[in-house]
């Protein structure tokens, strides 16, 4: 029953795609559980968490540019590497390229940075985004000649992706208004869904990836989305704990990422 239902929603996965999907889900999911247990990756407000032997740092802006730009560039290059492979493939490439182009632009024009970033952390994030973007596009390339899913989620996916993209951008703008350039003081975010969850930008980022998965309808895309959701939920859980430890007046009813639930 479950097998026939999945066959109606996704392309029949090849062995290569199945292996890629399992590795992706295990890698992202384990990182999310690690973050939930209190071992945060050291960027943003967790830059100075724990001790590090590495002392090679760059500015926060440079570090995040390093993190996002390679995935954007691969998305752009994919239009030349895999041309003329149909509307669905073009939409998948476009969605991923737009997502990372937006994140790259936000580094320069939206976010305000007050600290530095370890180069090895920036490199690890960059490799993860680059690899997963490349694998998602390659998995879509491997669907050539395969039977289309019985249920077409393409246009549902476009709507979800655009909602996630715009919601994520809106809440990033709200965060940027909390402090001026160079101001290191953190404040409790207000407005939008910040009154319900401390990381609505993560919630909308998850929605954006759900949208990409619905457009792609491959096992790897859905595995990446589930793994990313676990990772972002773990990070939002750590973020909420950080705010609770820093602000005595932090509203206890504000959840981590899912309103009223988590």
TrEMBL record:
Record bears the keyword Transmembrane helix: yes
Cellular compartment(s): Membrane
Residue ranges of the TM segments: 15-34, 62-82, 117-138, 150-170, 206-232
Pfam families named in the record: Steroid_dh
GO cellular component, one term: membrane
Family: Belongs to the steroid 5-alpha reductase family.
Protein name per UniProt: 3-oxo-5-alpha-steroid 4-dehydrogenase C-terminal domain-containing protein
Native source organism of the sequence: Rhododendron griersonianum
């Amino acid at each position: 029953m479950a097998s026939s239902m999945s066959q109606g929603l996704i392309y029949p996965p090849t062995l290569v795609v199945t292996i890629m999907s399992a590795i992706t889900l295990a890698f992202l999911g384990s990182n999310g559980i690690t973050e939930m247990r209190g071992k945060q990756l050291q960027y943003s407000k967790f830059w100075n968490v724990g001790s590090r032997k590495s002392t090679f740092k760059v500015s926060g802006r440079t570090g995040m540019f390093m993190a996002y730009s390679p995935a954007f560039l691969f998305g752009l290059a994919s239009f030349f590497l895999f041309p003329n492979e149909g509307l669905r493939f073009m939409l998948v490439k476009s969605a991923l390229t737009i997502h990372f182009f937006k994140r790259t632009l936000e580094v320069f024009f939206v976010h305000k940075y007050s600290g530095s970033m370890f180069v090895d952390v920036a490199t690890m994030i960059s490799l993860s985004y680059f690899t997963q973007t490349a694998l998602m596009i390659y998995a879509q390339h491997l669907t050539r000649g395969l039977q289309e899913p019985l249920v077409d989620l393409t246009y549902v996916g476009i709507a979800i992706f655009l909602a996630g993209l715009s919601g994520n951008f809106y809440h990033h703008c709200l965060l940027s208004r909390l402090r001026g350039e160079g101001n290191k003081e953190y404040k409790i975010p207000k407005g939008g869904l910040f009154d319900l969850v401390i990381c609505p930008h993560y919630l909308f980022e998850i929605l954006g990836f759900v949208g990409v998965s619905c457009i792609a309808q491959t096992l790897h895309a859905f595995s990446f989305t589930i793994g990313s959701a676990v990772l972002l939920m773990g990070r939002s859980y750590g973020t909420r704990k950080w705010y609770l430890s820093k602000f005595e007046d932090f509203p206890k009813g504000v959840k981590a990422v899912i309103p009223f639930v988590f």
